Amino acid sequence: MPGENLSRDEARERAELLSVDGYEVALDLRSAVGESGEGARTFRSVTTIRFRRTGTGSATFVDLVAPAVTSVELNGRSLDPAAVFDGSRIALDGLADDNVLVVDAQCAYSRTGEGMHRFVDPEDGEVYLYTQYEPADARRVYANFEQPDLKAPYRFAVTAPEGWTVWSNGVGERGEDGVWRFAETAPISTYITCVVAGPYHYVTDTYKRTLQDGTQLEIPLGAMCRKGLAKHFDADDVFLVTKQGFDFFHDNFDFPYPFGKYDQAFVPEYNLGAMENPGMVTFREEYIYRGKVTQAAYERRANVILHEMAHMWFGDLVTMVWWDDLWLKESFADFMGSFSLAEATRFANSWVTFANNRKSWAYRADQLPSTHPITADIRDLEDAKLNFDGITYAKGASVLKQLVAYAGRDAFLEGARRYFKRHAYGNTRLGDLLSVLEETSGRDMKAWSRSWLQTSGVNALTPVVTYGGEGRITELAVLQDGEELRPHRVRVGLYRRTEAGALERYSVEELDVDGPRTVAAYTAGAEAPDLVLVNDDDLTYCKIRFDEGSLATLRAHLGDITDPLARALCWSALWNLTRDGLMPARDFVSVALRFAGQETEIGVLQMVHTWARSAVTHYAAAEWRQEGGRLLAEGGLRELRLAEPGSEHQLTWARFFASVASSDADLQLLEGLLAGTAAIDGLDVDQELRWSFLEPLAAHGRADETRIDEELARDDTATGKRHQVRCLAARPSAAVKAQAWAQVVESDALSNALVEATIAGFAQPSQRELIAPYTEKYFAAIERVWAERSIQIGMDVVRGLFPGLQDDERTLAATDAWLAAHEDAAPALRRLVLEARDDLARALRGQACDRLAA
Questions:
Q1: What is the per-residue pLDDT for 271?
Q2: Residue 252, Cβ neighbours under 10 Å: how many?
Q3: Distance CA 227, CA 266 (A)
Q4: CA-based R_g, the chain, Å
Q5: Does the first or last residue of the chain, that is N or C, have fewer Cβ atoms within 10 Å of its Cβ?
Q6: What percent of the chain is modeled with pLDDT above 70?
């Protein structure tokens, strides 16, 4: 990996030296399918780059990561590949004012989801290809200047096996010579070019729109997946959300979609949720649901569809100069995804999901030692890869939500419109956006930026209430803590219980919290509340704290809050108290078991389930874990039996119960549900639910290899294979763990998806003693893994195999010893270890808090 890095300084120097007029890329992918079914390891890639020297100097380099280069020709002069190519760069010297570079290379098919990924479907033997480049893997497929500010138009030509279809960013067709040729793109960055090829199932539709000037806009729509998933593919719903998104963005952006067609490919073994390649968006195929799922799953998919669509403007049309300003695309897309979801689709409560789910990701990331400002300091590509995190996405989106409250919705959207028109097909930095927002809002955006974009950390807001002799409020103050005190536009809601037992808001007021203590003057004389909710309606980004009376109300009546957003905010706040060691884990579990059954929002319920499991696994005192697990299983089974037959709640509780089942009676019930000898009224145990039931049986030694293979025979598909691999690695055997470790750490034979599945099965909370010997092996291996494997696999191994389940001071000391002995290790690797160490230290603090409550 180090040899493939690119620094910000190198990129800046190259951008000052040259500009790119265009690329012609010819790929021959016929080697993807061989007589043996395995095909070759490489394909031919011929790239022609036309570029001009615009600065001083006569030397530069072009990026290419490939096993071999056949020839290099610069301005008609042949260069010796052995002399100029080092495996990741081709050195160029003697540049003219106008240059033509032709590189003929053998590039490698990928098994890790980076570059040109090749997948063989075990169900029918068909081969599928797709590309994934962000942040810098286009160089694995063709020679290029791999940085976002050297935009250029592209022409792709692809020779593919007979019977295949090929797609790219532009419209294409197959010529009589068998070559697929695609229309030239608008100027775009390397990382959003794309090729998808194979025998995909493909469905079409059309989006039509009359624009404000009377122009008729027509966008061809396409959606595709593997043939094996075609029977599950609900393309009509994908197209519905797509059209609703286009309506929303055309209504608000006043800049017609600029990239012609709009294809959406759901592809196998994808590392990300999705990628915004203009005209050819790619998604992970898990968004095609093989069994019954909840509306929360459809909401997540719709959010991702709209997130990627927002990128057509924020990121593709206007692109950041370098990865420091990654937020200029990701924060905006994350915000616009929820914004458009709430206003244009059936998912009107998407801000509830945002408050409860996305912000939870941000709060965790912002309290890690690796926290950074939203506008980050990205020194190189390894930094960039790790910066696709909860701060860049969810905190950035939260801050933009705050900005809308601060500057006004109309001013925000007008700023976006001016930004697109002013910088179309160009590259921008922070100041370019701030200048248009200052124009439209009249606000000092530089001061706002200094507080919110250029500092790190999360503030906590705590209400302090004093009462008079008649029980009325005499003063309500909001205290702010944190290293950086920021201005917050918040709503403070006062809630009290009604005669019917509901907990409802009876007073709310907006105020500007600025500094360590702010008094909400309007509350003086108000009736005493049962609950004070700072940041009601979730306008700002902060952790919510409670006064003692409010906390007591939540412990006794959280489920009685009638407003779903307020309830979601309270759930999130209680979880933050638990993570911060201010609330015992067993108390959070108690509240969850008492009120989760009343939760109406499925997405919130799923998060509460995740948090409750985490509370027992990581934050509960070791001596209480078994009891906590028993309580979760008992509560899960109780709510499963109480849930309406066939409902989303029943399905959600069934999955939760399976995830915490451990007693003999619990496991016998799962066995009976799988065998058909037991039943729960209305619960349809489809194939996906069968795998959910089988994994805990495997982890507790109730399903051996033969039983797992029998299940694979029922579901002999790519998805089934991933489930099987995870279940096999979950078995409680020293030999099983040794094999799983070797497959992931000592070998590169597994694809990215199977590496992920093996890691997920390896680390079982019920098997702490069994996997304890791997702590020493982990620290002995990670630097070698980081050096030898792709950055994606390196990240998966370092994060996924960290011995966090060995939650004691000895593991903390081992982590500190590795960090002290490896101060010169790759910064990105050290960051991952530091983050894992912080999670472990936080868990130990939580356990100490929980122990005191015993």
A1: 94
A2: 19
A3: 11
A4: 28
A5: C
A6: 99
Q: Is pLDDT at 35 greater than 90 in this prediction?
A: no
Listed residue (615, 574, 631) closest to 843, CA to CA:
615
Q: How far is CA 729 from CA 611, 700, 709, 755, 767, in A?
A: 24, 12, 13, 11, 12
Torsion from C-alpha of 62, 64, 70, 74, nearest 10 degrees = -10
Tokens of 639: 């709510």
Extract the tokens encoding 519: 């008094």
The answer to whether 723 touches 693, Cβ cutoff 8 Å, is no
The one-character DSSP state at 443 is S
Q: Which residues contact 182 (CB under 8 A, 6 or more apart)?
A: 155, 156, 157, 158, 168, 169, 170, 171, 172
**Positions marked catalytic:** 308
Q: Is the pLDDT of residue 36 over 70?
A: no
Structure tokens at 278: 């203009």
Q: Report d(CA 474, CA 622) in Å as an integer.
A: 44
Q: Please tell me what DSSP assigns to residue 745.
A: I
The DSSP element (H or E) to which 736 belongs, if any, is helix 734-741
CA pair distance 519, 179, nearest whole angstrom:
70
> Which residue blocks in 580-647 are alpha helix, DSSP H?
585-595, 602-614, 625-642
Closest CA to 127 of 229, 231, 200, 26: 200
Q: Residue 262 pairs with which residues in a beta bridge?
A: 221
| Angle, CA 556 vertex, CA 348 and CA 503 arms, to 5° | 45
**What is the C-alpha separation between 548 and 648, in angstroms, rounded?**
35
8 Å CB contact between 165 and 197: yes
- Is-above-0.90 flag for pTM? yes
- How confident is the model at residue 214, as a pLDDT? 87
Angle made by CA atoms 321, 324, 327, in degrees to the nearest 5: 90
- Which burial class, exposed, middle or buried, applies to 825 when counting CB atoms under 10 A from its CB (0-12, 13-18, 19+)? middle
Q: Kindly report, residue by residue over 197-234, the tens digit of the pLDDT.
A: 999 999 999 999 998 888 999 999 999 999 999 999 99
